[in-house]
Design a protein that fits this description.
By secondary structure, the chain is an all-alpha fold. The protein has one domain. Helix content is about 85%, strand content about 0%.
Length: about 140
């Protein structure tokens, strides 16, 4: 007996695991690069601004092919992907501004938290907006 709800949950769970693998790989490297350049004295918001496009490219390729096995139109998914990441970037910068510049929390901890907040936001955005199944 095929249960569509159970099948959808299993599919989503698999996507979440693959998303986590892609995310762990690129976020670990990205966070280490972030720590290195801020250790050199570069402003955290500048480091995030420069490193974000590189992380976006890795995320697009990995998540389109590996996580969601998306075969839809590349032009549509690319525009949606950019919009989702623009929103995630705004969330990241807002967290740095609010928690570091206003409330004076350590930027290292705020950026580490931002990785998880942005990752959760992006999984939902990629699943329901960017790489959703297109009707034939």
């Amino acid at each position: 007996m095929d249960c569509p709800i159970l099948s959808a949950w299993i599919k989503t769970a698999g996507q979440l695991v693959r998303y986590a693998l892609v995310g762990i790989a690129h976020n670990t490297v990205g966070y280490l690069v972030y720590l290195f350049f801020t250790w050199l004295g570069i402003d955290p918001k500048i480091v995030v601004g420069v490193s974000y496009p590189i992380a976006m490219l890795v995320s697009y390729v990995g998540n389109r092919q590996f996580t969601f096995h998306h075969t839809g139109r590349i032009s549509r998914s690319t525009v949606r992907f950019l919009l989702a990441h623009l929103a995630s970037y705004a969330i990241n910068l807002a967290m740095l501004f609010l928690f570091v510049d206003i409330w004076h929390y350590p930027h290292q901890l705020v950026q580490l938290a931002a990785i998880f907040v942005c990752a959760a936001f992006l999984f939902l955005a990629l699943k329901v907006f960017v790489f959703r199944q297109e009707s034939s």
